[in-house]
Design goal:
This protein is an alpha/beta fold. The chain has 7 helices and 8 strands.
């Protein structure tokens, strides 16, 4: 018996499409462990955006990309997922368009968390590109919605965001916390049964 014997079986009646949104100063990486684990439950694709852009610019771009990808796989049910700033964007777009979303160690108030990085030059984690955060970027943001078709996954040892604050933000949604971990989130495999139940519950109700 292997660890795969303990993983949930995807529901064959509900083919899933996970659209994963990366965090600040990064790019989508189909080879990442989180993407691979989500792939056990359905097709998983990543979508990129310029995290140094303003709220309106990013929202328009991600909305267009998510619509395009979803329409190209119209026989699948779409689920958004994202970590950190990507989790924030999954909450915003998920709430606006009624799309289920898995929010992982997300930023709930980017206007505050980004503000301290204004004027700093960043090297992209994935491609090495250099960018500087302009002050008009955090100023353009607003709070994450505090309710929606959301599943919130948090590592208690997230060194960027206080998981207790995030947990208290989402009093109307299921929040699951894991001991240890980090801001990158180390418990995707352990979370798969909860994700599986979440998406099947949501889509069965539709």
């Amino acid at each position: 018996m292997t660890d795969s014997d303990f993983l949930p079986e995807p529901n064959p009646v509900i083919p899933l499409l996970f659209i994963y949104i990366h965090g600040f100063n990064s790019k989508g990486d189909p080879t990442s462990q989180k993407i691979k684990e989500l792939g056990r439950l359905g097709e998983t694709v990543t979508v990129d955006y310029d995290s140094f852009g303003t709220f309106d610019v990013i929202e328009a771009h991600l909305t267009d990309e998510i619509k395009r990808i979803s329409r190209s796989r119209s026989d699948h049910f779409t689920v958004l997922a994202g970590t950190s700033l990507g989790g924030y964007w999954a909450s915003v777009i998920g709430k606006k368009y009624g799309i289920p979303a898995i929010l992982i160690n997300l930023a709930v108030q980017p206007q505050k968390s980004l503000e301290k990085h204004v004027g700093i030059e960043f090297e992209n984690f994935k491609d090495g590109q250099l960018n500087t955060l302009n002050e008009n970027v955090p100023a353009s943001y607003r709070d994450a919605p505090d309710a929606g078709m959301f599943l919130i996954l948090l590592d208690r040892e997230d060194d960027i965001f206080d998981y207790k604050k995030t947990e208290s933000w989402f009093t109307k949604n299921l929040v699951i916390t894991f001991d240890g971990g980090s801001h990158r989130f180390e418990h995707m495999r352990e979370a798969l049964p909860e994700i599986n139940m979440f998406v099947n519950r949501v889509f069965t109700a539709i």
